[in-house]
Amino acid sequence: MKEVVIISGKGGTGKTSIVSALAGLGPKKVLADCDVDAADLHLILKPEVRETMQFISGELPEIDRDSCIECGECLEHCKFGAISEDFRVIKENCEGCGVCSFVCPAEAARMYPRHCGEWYISDTRFGTMVHASLGIGEENSGVLVTTVRKKAGALAEEQGAELVLVDGSPGVGCPVIASLTNADAALVVAEPTVSAEHDLHRVCELTEHFGIQTMAVINKSDINENISGSIEDYCRERKIPVLGRLPYDSGFTRAQIQKQNVLEFDPNGLGKTMHGVWGNMRKYLQI
Amino acid sequence: MQIAVASGKGGTGKTTITVNLATYLIERGENVQLVDCDVEEPNSHFFLDINFEAEEKQYVQVPEIDMDKCLGESCRKCIRECRFKALIWMVDQVMVFPELCHSCGLCKLVCPADAVGDSQREIGAMRRVKKDNLHIYGGLLRIGEAMAPPLIARVKEAARAEPKGTTILDCPPGTTCPVIESLQGADYVILVTEPTPFGLYDLQLAVQLMQKLHYPFGVVVNRQGMGGEQELDKYLRENDIQVLGRLPHTKEAAEAYSRGELLVDAFPEFREIYADIWERIKNKVSAEVPA
Fold first, then answer.
1. Is the pTM of this model over 0.90?
2. DSSP for chain A?
């Protein structure tokens, strides 16, 4: 079984559209949406939720008003600005370190398990999907990503699926690192713009840092042929195979509006191109 | 006045709005501080024809254990208390995993033997450049570093120390910690969306975040005409959300963007839209924050 993570550095280059198309190609697979703070894959795959799990991660303090003596110890020691002047916990700033609880002489600050969101196992027309929704402004997205990936991997083993496709987040920080750790390969969705080219370099440095096999696909490639060319040069130098080029095409948006992937919406145009991308990907993954 | 530019979904046009709005204001003779809070993938400087002058490495504090003072395996208080599993007992000593440390300082507080000292972890660099009326601040997260918020906080601190006119905060995508850190102190938030179903879904998450954190906000619809407008407009109308402006979807604009060009310079009609957006924001902010 191989686990491939789709990332991009820059947001909005087409990760989710490409994952939803790859979902319809190749062998039996399990899908995982690890863009847990702005998950969109479900809008195309329309999952039927089979199981809902609560995501409890880390801890959150509560300050008991009756026992609080307003000494200010918690406020003084909190490094995250998570205690207000009137000794309330500002949840959005709290990292759950437990310092307030430790320094409180009145045992008024106590730590409780933190409910950060939900995650789901669902059925889709392309197979099982594991996905999640992080509570608004909640913490621990990295842990949630790891939870979703672990379950997707376990289900793939159970079902004898050959592939786990992971839809990643933009950036190079916590959730992206959590989605790449120990993955078999990364597929980077590039776009020929000065911004996305820079971001592609950063995300390829990250996959190299973690020693993960990297492939690329260039989306909207005709929007700037010069930069598309320079992306191909960059990939060649780094031995990153470019699996294909996709055109700047309204078909992606129109498919999205119909809640379809591009194979379903435009089988002879974008669909065919995606078949080519998958054919190349299969070779590199050796499945 | 501090204006944050945010969105749930990535790639909707936060940086486009930031740099074009900043340029519009500069060309009117105003002073602008542009703070690029996307330290993972900073892009705003590409559009402003600038090179960062100074780069200052940034560090966070992590523990270093003095094994001569450490009470040994029988104590292990620091290991037990650390919520981030950044300390473990390894053979005959406390081992620190600096990458997992949140710099909360609890290990130091709990140690009965004063054995926890200070070391550092590099998180990235802070950058700045001043060009006439425009001061730009940004950061670049070290590759492999997971935690963006401490670096974002440093960049914002540097900008706060040198106040200059209007501050525009270009936020990272999403709805979690890096965004929450970036938004702190904003008087008003511009939420940028595109009309697509993905754009709308993520806009709803961003709106929930604004409501939860009590930030006044309005929406800029980017790439109007791309498809999906009906559903978006229905949502905006039903939730009584103010639209600050709509920027048209054209291939020419996408091409100019790909080259790193400013739309207010390339297309006069965009300049007018930014002028309207700015008027609406000013009215909103002066109504919300009495002078």
1. yes
2. -EEEEEE-SSTTSSHHHHHHHHTTSSS-EEEEE--TTS--THHHH--EEEEEEEEEEEEEEEE-TTT-----HHHHH-SSS-B-TTS-B-GGG-----HHHHH-TTS-EEEEEEEEEEEEEEEETTEEEEEEEEPTT-S-HHHHHHHHHHHHHHHHHHHT-SEEEEE--SSSSHHHHHHHTT-SEEEEEE-SSHHHHHHHHHHHHHHHHTT-EEEEEESSGGG-HHHHHHHHHHHHHTT--EEEE----THHHHHHHTT--HHHH-TTTHHHHHHHHHHHHHHHHT-
